[in-house]
Amino acid sequence: xxxxxxxxLASEAGVALGPATLQDVGGIAxxxxxxxxxGLMLPKTEEELCRHLREFVxxxxxxxxxxxxxxxxxxxxxxxxxxxxxVDESCHGQxxxxxxxxxxxAEARALGIPTVFAMTLEEAFFHRRGFRTVPRASIPExxxxxxxxxxxxxACREIAVLRTVAGVGGAGExxxxxxxxxxxxx
Length: 186
Prior knowledge:
- This protein is an alpha+beta fold and 186 residues long.
- The longest helix has 16 residues.
- It has an eight-stranded mixed β-sheet.
- 26% of the residues lie in helices and 25% in strands.
- It has one domain: Gcn5-related N-acetyltransferase (GNAT) (Aminopeptidase, 3-Layer(aba) Sandwich), CATH 3.40.630.
- The chain contains five helices and eight strands, in the order E-E-H-H-E-E-E-H-E-H-E-H-E.
């Protein structure tokens, strides 16, 4: 992975999944904007990506190039969105998108967020990851934050999908299971 963060996952193929770094911004922009030029995603500037960098994870190849990305945007303690999910076309079918989604759902679980959604043109992909299709209006936070001002609002083809995160009880859940005893904190 480019940058100094330790990878979260490594595979035999020489790819690594981990938190995005500033060195990854150009690669994330290249992936997202490549799909945006074809009308499959909304374009993002490098400045926008820098503002939201901590939301993103990336998969990098053996030379450090970003070949997949995705982010987890938190709307409230009970709800987060998977954003900016993109996989380089030369890497389709290798499970990289699945790995990114699984990592983001695991992050939601670790944070105690019980519900994750996405807006997608690839409904079947998300169904295989445990998501179900829901009406866009059932996610008013998304509509208010992004859809209302979107230039594609009237011709939007994206489908809302939602997943309940296993093992999370929702806001107010006890954090005792995640705390280290005082002696172990160093």
